[in-house]
Specification:
This protein has 304 residues and is of the alpha+beta class. The protein contains seven helices and 16 strands. The strands form five sheets. A five-stranded antiparallel β-sheet has the order 6-7-12-10-11. Strands 1-2-5-3 form a four-stranded mixed β-sheet, covered by helices on one side. The radius of gyration is 19 Å and the shape is globular.
């Protein structure tokens, strides 16, 4: 694995009071007190160590999906990883990817190599690092089904190697959520199902087309807001049954196409989105006795 050498001028990477809304799919949120885009793992080590030494809260932001940033922004230091840690290469029967690799790119790489099992990732707009943390999934599959191991960096400059059982992967969750300052830097996936590349690519295209028919076209959303509860109807069905399709709070609007999507229909605020989520949870609980759990991560609250 890469070395832990720390660049001497690491503070030069930091931008102060940088807007975060343009870096998220919801286009919502205040500014980062400090934002840095590390070029490689050496930069990551340096920035993490700097935050640790100075007592700054540390946040990680990939492509900005599945996250809601508070209107007041984020204190401390935010690492923007959407263009960082982009390594992607085959190692025998495994495919190793940096944390910043997008899930569609990972799925396409597996297809080109002639392996199936990754098609469900093609329509998910997140990164490998965020996907591991939340055990991302779609079409009844999740990352746990293809993941072999990950490497995690800690602010104390430890590099931990963890397997899926050690990660405690569950329904849109993992033990990493309990360690918000740990950063997934690389993941290794099993290439276990050889298949014709063209067949795999066709299957991916069909899944993406199918998702487009079910999900709203408005790009200013975070994806699914709530987890599908175990042993109950899907979250979207429950929200629709509670009468929320098209429901609006300011510019925060529940999609008429899929009720588990909340759209930014103009200049929605994080406060409006949060209030609407709370209203939905309370009504679904009152009318159907189901406690909806958020899938979207609130920053800084959930990682405080």
């Amino acid at each position: 694995m890469p070395s832990k050498n720390i660049p001497k001028n690491i503070s030069q990477l930091i931008l102060e009071n940088h807007p975060l809304a343009p870096l998220t799919t919801w286009r919502i949120g205040g500014a980062a007190a400090r934002l840095a885009a590390p070029a490689d793992l050496a930069d990551v080590w340096g920035l993490m160590r700097l935050a640790y030494d100075r007592g700054w809260p540390l946040f990680f932001l990939g492509r900005g999906s599945n996250v809601l940033i508070d209107d007041a922004g984020l204190p401390g230091l935010t690492l923007h990883l959407a263009k960082s840690l982009q390594g992607l290469e085959r190692h025998g029967d495994n495919l190793r990817a940096g944390a910043g690799v997008s899930l569609p790119r990972l799925a396409q790489a597996a297809a080109r190599l002639g392996f199936s099992g990754f098609e469900f990732l093609a329509g998910i707009p997140g990164t490998v690092g965020a996907a591991v943390r939340l055990n991302a999934g779609a079409e009844g599959q999740s990352l746990a089904g293809v993941l072999k191991r990950v490497w995690v960096a800690t602010p104390q400059l430890q590099l931990l190697e963890l397997t899926p059982p050690e990660l405690g992967l569950g329904n849109r969750t993992s033990l990493l959520l309990n360690f918000p300052h740990w950063l997934v830097v690389e993941a290794e996936f099993n290439l276990a199902h050889p298949a014709d590349p063209e067949v795999v690519k066709a299957r991916m295209a069909a899944l993406i087309a199918q998702r487009k028919t079910r999900q709203p076209a408005n790009p200013k959303s975070c994806g699914s807001v709530f987890k599908n509860p175990a042993g109950a109807p899907a979250a979207g069905w429950l929200i629709e049954a509670a009468g929320f399709k098209g429901h609006r709070l300011g510019d925060a609007v529940v999609s008429r196409k899929h009720a588990n999507f909340i759209l930014n229909a103009g200049h929605a605020t994080a406060a409006q989105i949060k209030a609407l989520m709370t209203e939905i949870q309370e009504k679904v609980w009152q009318t159907q006795g189901v406690a909806l759990e958020r899938e979207v991560v609130l920053l800084p609250e959930d990682l405080a």
